[in-house]
Amino acid sequence: MAGTGTPPREKARVYRTGRPDKLCSLLFAVAALILCAGIGAVLWHEWQGTRPTAAEQAEADEIERADGGEEEIAAVIEEAADGKIVVAIDPGHGGVNPSVGGEDAGSLGSGLREADVTLKTATLVYDKLARDGRFAPMLTANGTEYLKPSRRAARAKAAGAQLLLSIHLNYDADSRVSGFECCPATPQLSTNADSLRFARLVAEKFGAMGMELRGIDGVRYIYFDDNDNRYIRESNDTTALSDPTFTVVQKCGCPAVLVEEGFITNAGDVALVATDAACEAAAQAYYECILTYFDLT
Fold first, then answer.
1. What is the mean pLDDT of the chain?
2. Residues 216-222: contacts with CB within 8 Å, 24+ apart?
3. Which residue of 143, 149, 199, 274 could cross-link 94, Cys pair, CB 3.0 to 4.6 Å?
4. What is the largest CA-CA distance in the chain?
5. pLDDT digit string (tens) for 128-164?
6. DSSP conformational letter for 56
7. Selection from 58, 106, 96 nearest residue 261 by Cα
8. Number of Cβ within a 10 Å radius of residue 122
């Protein structure tokens, strides 16, 4: 009937202008679904304990690098701008690990927890460097929040660390096993030469304190194979292998060592590195080695 309804031309115009709106909504929904799927994939891998893809891992690492500690890192960077030397001290273990639902205390022995000893020693090193006035020290972790090695390394790198010291204690079911070992960046890494130089300073200092040096000189390269099994090469083996070493040493972007000060299960080692007085002596030894490494008096 004439004069009623929508003219054909109008209907066509309504249809053409409405289609892009529907298409945009559809595309937006698809994009949101893809984004959620990507995040879900990373979370799924974490929950399943399987290895994420390279792209997923790169995304996760980027998130970790930007996550937390910005104010502390900014303060260290500001001090570095004034000419201070940035040294990262990494207290092994500590904090509640959500993936295991409990605290990461590290090794246990002799009535001690590794995380407590390493945090005490690391804090003493930090204090000595801070009082010196020529350093801008930082702790990669404070013992309360669990930070996995990749995040600790990322924090040190973000702060522009020029040296990283990661402090640990070893464990063996046989209480007779003892000794000190210092593990620098491995030969395939650009930081190897300086890391090795610092490792030798530390091993020599702890040997003078009475620690038995494991291997040929207390300095050893640690690698992990495709099945995450650890294997050792002595410091005189300069072969550039492709297998990774400790994450915190490999990814911090500066010369670095991981020190196994001794065995928490050995009474002699505990007396030398794990009592209150021994933690102070160990911290002083590290401080003196850092001074020597940077050619300071």
1. 84
2. 218/179, 218/180, 218/181, 218/182, 219/181, 219/182, 219/183, 219/184, 220/181, 220/182, 220/183, 221/183, 221/184, 221/186, 221/187, 221/245, 222/183, 222/186, 222/246, 222/258
3. 143
4. 108
5. 999 999 999 999 999 888 999 999 999 999 999 999 9
6. H
7. 106
8. 29
CA distance readout (Å), 141 to 68, 202, 244:
11, 22, 23
Assess whether pLDDT exceeds 90 at residue 80: yes
Tell me how far apart the alpha carbons of residues 243 and 223 are, in angstroms, rounded to a whole number.
6
CA distances from 191 to 14, 163, 171, 254, 297 (A): 66, 10, 28, 6, 24
Question: How buried is 139 (Cβ within 10 angstroms: 0-12 exposed, 13-18 middle, 19+ buried)?
Answer: buried
Q: Say what the pLDDT of residue 58 is.
A: 55
CA 288/CA 283 separation, integer angstroms: 9
Alpha-carbon distances, residue 104 vs 38, 98, 99, 142, 280 (angstroms): 29, 10, 10, 13, 23
Other Cβ atoms within 10 Å of 153 Cβ, number: 30
For 98-139, strand residue ranges (E) read 102-103, 108-109, 112-113, 135-139
Measured distance CA(222)–CA(189) in Å, rounded: 13
DSSP bridge partners of 135: 85
Which SS3 state, helix, strand or coil, does residue 90 take?
Answer: strand
Q: Rounded CA gap, 104 and 62, in Å? A: 24
Residue 101 is encoded by which pair of tokens?
């639902």
pLDDT digits (tens, 9 = 90+) for 237-281: 999 999 999 999 999 999 999 999 999 999 999 999 999 999 999
d(CA 273, CA 282): 6
